[in-house]
């Protein structure tokens, strides 16, 4: 049986370093916001001609008078165009102009969002993340309301909140870096990715916490809390890793074979899944022990 608790300071220190670096990244670089949050038009098209490329599309749109253009291409000759907000009449005019200038293309999708709607979506997204983190923590505290002495249900809920913050803030810091150096835009897909990470992470954490609760019932008169926590981690580690690997394999497949416009969405979930597994095993349970010892000394 591996002694995880012996190295708890190393595990918790690494988690703390990741959180600090992520916060520095977020406050230093910020996020490049997509049209979901600042408004604009998003247009996905596919050209039949192999001669057409991103540069030709950009030059054609510039000739028409469209500025602030961002173009992302994929292997199937489809292009994701981002530019300032336009109405439906303008959209049809641009479509006709592009067909005359570059040849026939298939329109896959088009959406246009005004700045006021984008601002409302941004506020709603922030509140969604905050309320989900708090809601999950309260749910865990209530679920462990009959938790065995000496660990209270409030402790389970508090540690869950700290762990979820770690799992959400590190992918956010990573995306801030990608926004700065690769121009990756943050949109509602990113918010969905963070919520998926939170849900997956708490699932693993609850499994470990539930085993700690059961072992406290059976062994609290025979073993110390640190020994019980360590035993619980060892008993659930294989299950946590195997569960995570099934998701990670799917995400890796989507990363290389999925749609180009979902690449960073999948990448963020992939990073968060790995972090969620790490935090459930190496952060949540050791932190529960540290918090209990702190309260007892106080």
Automatic annotation (TrEMBL):
Keywords: Cell membrane, Membrane, Protein transport, Translocation, Transmembrane, Transmembrane helix, Transport
Domain Protein export membrane protein SecD/SecF C-terminal: 105-292
GO cellular component, one term: plasma membrane
Location relative to the cell: Cell membrane
Superkingdom: Bacteria
InterPro entries attached to this UniProt entry: SecD/SecF_arch_bac, SecD/SecF_bac, SecD/SecF_CS, SecD_SecF_C, SecF_bac
Keyword Transmembrane among UniProt keywords: yes
Listed GO biological process terms: intracellular protein transmembrane transport; protein targeting; protein transport by the Sec complex
Predominant subcellular localization, coarse grouping: membrane
Ranges annotated as spanning the membrane: 12-31, 125-145, 157-178, 190-209, 240-257, 263-291
Keyword Lyase applies: no
Recorded GO MF terms: protein-transporting ATPase activity
Membrane topology, record value: Multi-pass membrane protein
Assembly behavior: Forms a complex with SecD. Part of the essential Sec protein translocation apparatus which comprises SecA, SecYEG and auxiliary proteins SecDF. Other proteins may also be involved.
NCBIfam families named in the record: transloc_SecF
Family matches, as PANTHER family: PROTEIN TRANSLOCASE SUBUNIT SECF (PTHR30081:SF8), PROTEIN-EXPORT MEMBRANE PROTEIN SEC (PTHR30081)
Entry's family note: Belongs to the SecD/SecF family. SecF subfamily.
Function: Part of the Sec protein translocase complex. Interacts with the SecYEG preprotein conducting channel. SecDF uses the proton motive force (PMF) to complete protein translocation after the ATP-dependent function of SecA.
Protein name: Protein-export membrane protein SecF
Species, as recorded: Candidatus Liptonbacteria bacterium CG11_big_fil_rev_8_21_14_0_20_35_14
Source organism phylogeny: Bacteria, Candidatus Liptoniibacteriota
Gene assigned in the entry: secF
């Amino acid at each position: 049986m591996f002694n995880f608790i012996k190295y708890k300071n190393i595990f918790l220190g690494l988690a703390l370093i990741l959180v600090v670096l992520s916060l520095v990244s977020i406050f230093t670089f910020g996020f490049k916001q997509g049209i979901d949050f600042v408004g604009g038009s998003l247009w996905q098209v596919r050209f039949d001609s192999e001669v057409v490329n991103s540069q030709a599309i950009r030059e054609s749109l510039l000739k028409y008078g469209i500025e602030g253009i961002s173009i992302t291409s994929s292997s199937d000759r489809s292009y994701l165009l981002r530019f300032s907000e336009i109405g439906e009449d303008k959209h049809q005019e641009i479509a006709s102009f592009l067909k005359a200038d570059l040849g026939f293309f298939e329109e896959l999708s088009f959406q246009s969002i005004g700045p006021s709607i984008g601002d409302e979506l941004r506020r709603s997204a922030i509140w969604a993340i905050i309320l989900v983190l708090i809601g999950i923590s309260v749910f865990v505290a209530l679920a462990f309301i009959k938790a065995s002495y000496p660990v209270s249900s409030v402790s389970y809920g508090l540690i869950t909140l700290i762990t979820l913050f770690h799992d959400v803030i590190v992918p956010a810091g990573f995306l801030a870096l990608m926004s700065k150096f690769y121009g990756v835009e943050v949109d509602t897909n990113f918010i969905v990715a963070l919520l998926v990470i939170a849900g997956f992470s708490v699932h693993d954490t609850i499994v470990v916490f539930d085993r700690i609760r059961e072992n406290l019932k059976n062994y609290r008169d025979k073993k110390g809390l640190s020994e019980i926590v360590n035993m619980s981690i060892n008993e659930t580690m294989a299950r946590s890793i195997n569960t995570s690997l099934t998701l990670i394999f799917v995400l890796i497949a989507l990363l290389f074979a999925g749609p180009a416009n979902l690449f960073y969405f999948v990448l963020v979930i992939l990073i968060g899944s790995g972090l969620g597994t790490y935090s459930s095993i190496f952060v949540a349970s050791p932190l529960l022990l540290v918090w209990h010892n702190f309260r007892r000394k106080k």
